[in-house]
From TrEMBL:
PANTHER family: RHOMBOID-RELATED PROTEIN (PTHR43066), UBIQUITIN-ASSOCIATED DOMAIN-CONTAINING PROTEIN 2 (PTHR43066:SF21)
Protein name: Peptidase S54 rhomboid domain-containing protein
Lineage: superkingdom: Eukaryota
Alphabetized UniProt keyword annotations: Membrane, Transmembrane, Transmembrane helix
One example GO MF annotation: serine-type endopeptidase activity
Amino acid sequence: MITSGFTNAPVSQFLVFGVVIGAIVASLTDTRYYIHIQVVPHIWKYGQFWRFLTWQLCFTNSTEVLFAAISLYNLRVIERLWGSRKFASFLLATLPYTTLLPPFILTFVLRPLSFGRINVLPAGPTPLLFALLANYYAAIPYTYRYKISPYAASPSDSASNPAQTASSIWAKSMTFTSKATTYLPPLQLALSQVPGSLLAAAVGWAVGTAYRRDVLPYAIIIRRLRNRSPNNGGHEREDYGDLHGKRYIPQVE
């Protein structure tokens, strides 16, 4: 049965409302200027290293808030697939990486290599969102595909040889899936304030992929602790988080 709204997705609901309320609070209290990171002057001149921990608190741009809320709403299917417990543990396990890696890469790698041209990391949980998006890409199958042609056939060609015209249009068309529109709002976030926003998106995607492949040390510990259940004698149960190939999540009764 297809469920709408935030049914069976309380953590996703908290994230969506948190993104909106956080932006409103930052705007009303005039604190949105304290969230983003500029390596110079924030880090090297003023020594505000606490920004490394707070820059993901909220978005400071109304357009980014809109697209982030839409993206998190669309990604609620991940929570329904995994369950709220695994979904929350994923957020906790990847939070240290999505929070610290982008500012460290910007400060100690990209800015020196670009001779100071790349200096700004925009505020907002873009890496966390893209970590979820990477798992959505890998775990959720598409339901249908469709093609879009960049041009239309002329009436004379269609009348003379309709079969050949249709084949030509079909060969030059672009194929999309039912998941294509889900990627548009996150793409807007990634391109909103390049190169900083693109860095945050790339790190988030890499962290999400690494979590799925069990190469994040802290994440592996949390996953193993979560998979241990007192109802099965403390043994680990295998966790299937993928709908490709008709997998499912075993439940311990």
